[in-house]
Amino acid sequence: MEETISLKELLETLKKRLLLIVSITLVAAIASGVVSYFFLTPVYQASTQILVNQTKSDQTVYSPNEVQTNIQLINTYNIIMKSPVILDKVKDDLNLNMTTDQLNQKITVASETNSQIVNVSVQDPDAKVAAEIANKTAEVFKDQISTIMKVDNVSILAKATVGEKPTPIKPNKKLNVVIAAVVGLMVSVGIAFLLEYFNNTIKNEQDIEKILGLPILGVIATIDDKKMDELKLRKAARKTAVRGETLGS
């Protein structure tokens, strides 16, 4: 016999396990909040922009081919900017207590679409250090690229700065709590249905019919104590009324 589950049964299961669902959801959200606010180290980001062209010619206006060549060279510049030639000098100039690989992982270099502008972003637990690394990387690249690729037209468009109250880019504490709550809700609902699925106790007359494969002839209704007391009082009142009528006649 194919078993079907009605919407009413699903809602009854959720209602029955409501305490479990709420508890797991709250625990997940609280745990995420505690970890995000007290254990995860905030990370700040600082960015700078540079413009890279080829060596200036005597022409006052660039040709379209020259601009296209500059755009194609941007990927090469991006690789050079994160190479040990640049990063070793940045590390030495700033006296950074980290390896070149660790410094490389902090730096992200990306170019604007169809442009000669390169964005240098640095992430670090210290906002001031992130800005110093970004600015120093741009400065060292500007000094070294003329020797590496004979390019002498590098301009720093915007330096990285640190505000009075910098905001970390991660962790996103509120988002972490919301995600944890949603995941906790999904897990708790799954556990509720799983417990109900493995619950083999007979809960109603339909379960008896499914297990035994026999039709139900009758059902004994359950009456709670309150209703029994009400029935007794009504019965006693009727008897009193009948006796009164008998005596009156």
TrEMBL record:
It is a multi-pass membrane protein. Keywords: Cell membrane, Membrane, Transmembrane, Transmembrane helix. Its main location: membrane. It is found in: Cell membrane. Residues 3-94 form the Polysaccharide chain length determinant N-terminal domain. It comes from the Bacteria. Residues 141-194 form the Tyrosine-protein kinase G-rich domain. The chain crosses the membrane at residues 18-40, 175-195. Belongs to the CpsC/CapA family. This is Wzz/FepE/Etk N-terminal domain-containing protein.
